[in-house]
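Quick one from the shared queue. A colleague (R.T.) flagged Cytochrome as missing a structural entry in our internal table.

Convert sequence to structure tokens.
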Amino acid sequence: MKASEFPDAFKDARQKEGVGKMNDQDDPVTMVLRHKEVRKCAHQWQAFQSGGDEVGRIVIPSEVKIRDTRQIPFEVDPPQHKSFRDILDPWFKRPLNEEYSSKITTIIEEIIDESLKSNEVEVVADFALKLQSRALTLLLNIPYSEANLWISWGTHVFRSDDSDLDADKANILYDYIDKQIDLAIETPSESLYSVLLNSEVDGEKMTKEEVKGVLILTFAGGRDTVINAVTNSIAYFAGNPKALAVLKEKPEMINNAVEELVRYFSPLTQMGRVATKDTHVCEHAIKADTRISLNWASANRDENVFETPNEVVLDRKVNPHVSFGFGTHNCLGATHARQILRILLAKLSQKVTSIATLDSKENIENLGEFNRKVGFDSLNVQFKK
Ligand code: HEM
Ligand code: EMZ
């Protein structure tokens, strides 16, 4: 398979059954595979909840064993969910400011220029992780130098080479965030930590535990998703060299191109919910207190919604993809992620004429009988001027 190809792992099950089953730590998941039902279930927060008592259970693989802190607003249901979103939404829209995007531009130009000087670049570690971590300093509004520490943690904060759920690694992040919260209490600044510590939700000051919950989500949720999106986009341009010239010629296509790449790659495969009562999805019985998942990756290849779903059509006009989720919990980091990707495409097309793939190792998620390529463990390329 070409490095730039990302097959649809769910086609048969989506067409025949509409659902697929997988086990995960003896807590099975019924994956909802069709676009229409994914959107419908995402709306039904009363029947399919994100909150619930068991923190970490909606993530697949479940993080129940490695996390006690509730991620906010991700593991909170309406109506409380809205109170948190009202505080967080304006902050997470800052990437639209000119000053913010010009700083992202500087970060991206520096990484591309450095990559052009090298004969071989390992994109995951030397390009995408650096870009993700450096850009995150802007989102948190803290000094740029802090990124070096996060880069040293590697691509995922809960997963390591040996384990999908690495408690020791998770503790590094939790301890770090605890320390940063205490520092922000001692010496307030303009950072996200300080802003949240001074915020009130429904008339009450946010607690340290709530602030920690937002920060864990910002570090974890915004990490491998962005790294996959950036790495896979570079694999796409390596496999489709003309696309860089097309975007250079027609920069007005870039916004559509970003949406299409994000649809095709679906950097976050799925997210779970817990059924609160006996119910049905696509005529399949779902028992109370069992898990379903909203399978964004499958919905994004639904042939009833997308023409030629397995092709990247950079100027696809109608593109109701659900890569950033749908409804209540739609991605809070989407503005930041989109700015990174738009500026990345603009600068790549201006500065790079072709990218040669030298070597690649795919990252395959094993989901029961389904094996889904979600990104790369490593991707070695050469960038050419
Ligand atoms: C929610 C995908 C980047 C923070 C979500 C959801 C998806 C998603 C599918 C919905 C989860 C659900 O319904 O349960 C992505 C993708 C990204 C990306 C594909 C990159 C290409 C980021 C970044 C951040 C972030 C950069 C922040 C640093 C969040 C938060 C939520 C969320 C806080 C929960 C929102 C809520 O519960 O109201 N993301 N994400 N994401 N994402 Fe992202
Ligand atoms: C959770 C999730 C958030 C989870 C919106 O997605 O991303 C995953 O990578 C993390 O492991 O804890 O933050």
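Residues 249 and 349 are 9 Å apart (CA to CA).
The two ends are 27 Å apart (CA to CA).
Added to the table.
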